Amino acid sequence: MNYNEFYQESLGNKEAFWKKQSNELPWFTPPNTILSEDANGYPLWFADGETNACYLALDQHIEAGYGDQVAIIYDSPVTQTLKKYSFNEVKSEVSRLAGGLLALGLKKGDTAVIYMPMIPQAAFAMLACARIGVTHSVVFGGFAPHELAIRIDDCKPRVVITASSGIEIDRLIAYKPLVDEAIELADHKPKKVVVLNRKLGARIPFKKYDVDYDALVYGSEEAACVPVNATHPLYVLYTSGTTGKPKGIVRDTGGYATALKFSMKYIYGAQPGEVFWAASDVGWVVGHSYIVYGPLINRNTTVLFEGKPIRTPDASTFWRVISEHNVSVMFTAPTAIRAIKKEDPNGEFIKQYDLSCLRTQFLAGERCDVATLEWYNEHIPVPAIDHWWQTESGWPMISNMMGVEQLPIKPGSASKAVAGYDIRIFSENGEELGPNEEGYVVIKLPLPPGTLLDIWNDNPRFKAGYLTKFPGYYFSGDGGFKDDEGYLFITGRVDDVINVAGHRLSTAEMEEIVAAHHSVAECAVIGINDDLKGQIPLALVVTKSGEEIEHFQLQHEIVQKVREQIGAVASLKDVIVVQRLPKTRSGKILRKLLRSIVDGADYQIPSTIDDEAIIPEIEEVLSHCKIGSFK
Ligand code: COA
Ligand code: AMP
């Protein structure tokens, strides 16, 4: 197949193209209306179709005779556990958990929050919700109670499903006390908290709202799949935006299932029956799309890995998992490869494993630097495919479509637009820019199926954030350019969102916490380059006049506050005290300028700067600081 023809077909007759793709799924009621609009004029896919994501992930394969195929491989170096679940076994557990949730009073249209580590029960909980039409919202386990509380208040779950503990490299993290604290902080009070006791020794304080996960599953009848409309919200997934409040990205059911099935075949080139591994977390969009729903809908065996690329136990872990489980296609973040490279620069561990099963390595979540790509290529003889997407899109927007035609790889580019995405580069004024001109990355509406439907409870924010800046186009929040062959290069965010070790975080949110410190008069949190994590946050603070606080004390208190309120995953370790911050004459802090100074990049002083004399001052302070040293 030819990429160009396929791509043109996808844009030329969108309805026919996506109708054909939707036929790859067994619908309860196949859609007659392929593309329509919601009350706000926003495009909807397959509006009158009826389906169920859990049916598509499990039951359809059992009905087709694949019940004994392994659906999930749970590989947990941190607990030294390896367990395989067939589609039959997953369905049995999921349908009884769904029955248990019904018995707790949940019904179609309700919401449930899932706060769990990387264990099979996290996937079971997602699928059980989907089975009965309950919209789930998975919250990443690395987020602190305050963050969990914000999400509970926004999506108002009837239940929270959790586990007794997660495990980080060197410590057990008791989840139940964190959930209790979040419920205490939240205004909305969930009726029940379902707790899986992992029996790893974590403290599980008892509350009246607690329900034991095992007792619920084993004491319940199997629940059948509830047909839902294609536009029914399968999940809400919160992601960082440009304010302190995360955005609840709403995903539909039928369009998403169609897009995932499509992407497994045409982007990832994964055949049903093969083993697919996305080394991410169910708390992120990668986990939703390519640990749980995508591979299962495509009848792939999915690997659910509870560990890190290094120190669990060492930098050989990824290669062991690939070779032991016969992984055909793998997906990870470049930061994971950088971590491995740092520990094993000559790839000695790689040589110890037979990786002949691996066909393609996909990389995403952040920009893939050329050095990482080259190191990978030097040591592993399979294509390493950088691809670009976001929580909002739910599936890749720029990628080499490996199931269509492999295009030559250009390091630094995630290749060309995926079928269905009409990607353009715009100037600030909304004019389309020519080849090699850097601007805003935008996508002509309608976006293809599976992309965001709305922001939960906040349609005005959805419109303001994505649709208003360039009418008729979706604004991605990323900058980039297209070369003269149509290859797209993403150069980074154009807003205050940063990417730390593949985790998307908001500097505005961190700024709110730093600014709340009693000694801080004003501050700026910026993302600066980091060899391992891609970016890390750095706080620059101006202390209140007359405040007598030692730098190390201030830094310690701020770092602790950010860990307490957002979570350790924020990775804010460095706080620098400056006399003043560079601003425009209208009082806006010049964050981009600060970033360039700290990163040692070339910069131009904006003509709008209030006082140019501040630049040498800032440079002087920074020249005395060793960022990254305050661990
Ligand atoms: N629960 C609790 N704490 C968590 C957590 C979780 N689920 N995930 C991370 N944290 C904590 C870590 O323990 C660490 O705490 P510390 O500051 O006390 O050491 C902190 O958050 C930062 O974690 P992380 O960013 O993961 O850094 P790390 O140094 O532990 O590991 C990498 C570095 C590169 C190995 C790791 O970030 C990694 O594997 N990244 C890949 C990310 C990925 O797959 N992202 C998904 C997008 S595709
Ligand atoms: P998230 O929503 O957490 O998946 O983060 C999405 C953001 O990560 C995007 O808007 C980009 O800024 C960045 N990103 C993801 N993948 C890539 C990539 N392949 N290249 C460059 N940036 C990427």
Automatic annotation (TrEMBL):
One Pfam family linked to the record: ACAS_N
Keyword Protein biosynthesis set for record: no
Question: Which superkingdom does the taxonomy of this entry point to?
Answer: Bacteria
Protein's name in the database: Acetate--CoA ligase
Instruction: Write down the species.
Output: Flavobacterium stagni
Where do the Acetyl-coenzyme A synthetase N-terminal domain residues begin and end? 3-56
Q: What is its EC number?
A: 6.2.1.1
The AMP-dependent synthetase/ligase domain is annotated at 64-444
Identify its protein family.
Belongs to the ATP-dependent AMP-binding enzyme family.
Domain named AMP-binding enzyme C-terminal: residues: 509-588
Q: Which SUPFAM superfamilies match?
A: Acetyl-CoA synthetase-like (SSF56801)
State the Gene Ontology terms under molecular function: acetate-CoA ligase activity; propionate-CoA ligase activity
Q: Which GO terms describe its cellular component?
A: intracellular organelle lumen
Q: Which residues form a coiled coil?
A: none
